[in-house]
Write a structure and sequence with these properties.
single chain; 107 residues; alpha+beta; 3 helices; globular; disordered N terminus
Length: 107
């Protein structure tokens, strides 16, 4: 397989808000998201992005979220700062969706 680039999904985790501003579930899920690592590559033949988790969160939904954010930010114009901001924004969106989909969050 021909690979154009390998981009490790690593970013400095955004500073967590104080515990009283966010439910504990958001903080725990955010930490798990931040600890998850993956590699995004672009296949030169198919031009498709592929993601491989190298350090799992232990939850397939979180791993999938990390890959989704990594793919969305892959090749983001503006350098490392723009990539880091893209990941932080994607993380925020993922956490809102993830927590809202939890059965306990719907009560």
């Amino acid at each position: 397989m021909l690979v154009l680039a390998v981009h490790l999904i690593v970013s400095d985790p955004p500073a967590a808000a104080p515990a009283d501003d966010q439910p504990q579930e958001v903080l725990v899920t955010g930490r798990r998201f931040d600890r998850t690592r993956g590699i995004v590559i672009r296949n030169l033949v198919t031009r498709q992005l592929q993601c491989r988790i190298t350090k799992t969160s232990g939850d397939a939904r979180i791993d999938e979220g990390v890959c989704s954010v990594g793919k969305a930010c892959f090749g983001h114009k503006g350098g490392q700062d723009a990539f880091t901001q893209c990941v932080a924004d994607g993380r925020r969106r993922f956490l809102k969706t993830f927590v809202a989909s939890e059965p306990t969050a719907q009560n």
